[in-house]
Design goal:
Blueprint lengths: L2 H19 L1 H11 L5 H32 L4 H20 L10 H9 L4 H10 L2 H13 L3 H23 L1 H39 L7
Length: 215
């Protein structure tokens, strides 16, 4: 891959990962779970959660293809299944509904009651849930080699850093944006994710049935 192709891949990776992690949509849940905490404890929780999120995504960046190989799953088949999962999440984002594939009502209630919610359920499954893991594996399966995977890991790191900033300043940002502002941004990211999901499914179908697309 040349420099231009690498730059495009990095931008596409970052947008895909940031949209599916979606810290803005998770911000109200974070505020609810950390209600009554001091600013210092809230920042510590945000740091631990975002660090865990990065570690999980980095692990699947370099180990996801081994999982596919172990279960004898072809990359095109995983792209189709992954694209469908991401499209389901996108529909829920467009309707501004909590993505139940990411966190269930029981997990959300447990998070409010738990003393330490940084790892579970905040980092897993809210931030680095099935949708994010699927995105990581799909991206890492598209291009072999260390350079693309390092770019994916860099995208994950940037997403985690931005998530930390959003969570650590969640109360003030919530006042500025308001519920309507958060909903608008969530719908925009849902639309972007829907387009990405469709492209992943089409890519999987093209890989599974190459003769259908032969000219």
């Amino acid at each position: 891959m040349d420099i231009s192709a690498l730059a495009k891949f990095f931008i596409a990776s970052f947008v895909s990962i940031f949209v599916i992690v979606n810290p803005l949509a998770n911000m109200p849940i974070f505020i609810t779970m950390t209600e009554g905490d001091s600013p210092e404890k809230r920042r510590a929780t945000a740091l631990k959660a975002c660090t865990t999120c990065f570690v999980v995504l980095a692990a699947f960046t370099f180990g996801g293809h081994y999982i596919l190989r172990f279960f004898s799953i072809t990359v095109p088949a995983f792209r189709i299944a992954g694209g469908i999962i991401l499209f389901m999440v996108a529909l829920q984002m467009l309707q501004v509904k909590p993505a139940r594939i990411r966190i269930s009502p029981e997990e959300e209630k447990e998070g409010v009651e738990k003393e330490d919610i940084a790892v579970v359920p905040l980092a897993i499954p809210m931030l680095s849930g099935p949708g994010a893991i699927t995105t990581i594996i799909v991206l890492s399966s598209e291009h072999e080699g260390w350079t693309p995977r390092l770019l994916i890991m860099l995208s994950s790191l940037l997403t985690s850093l931005i998530s930390y900033v959003i969570f650590s300043r969640s109360v003030s940002m919530s006042r500025v944006l308001g519920r309507s502002g958060v909903n608008i941004l969530t719908r925009i990211m849902g639309l972007i994710l829907a387009v990405i999901a469709v492209e992943i499914v089409v890519s999987g179908i093209r890989g599974m049935f190459p003769r259908l697309f032969a000219v």
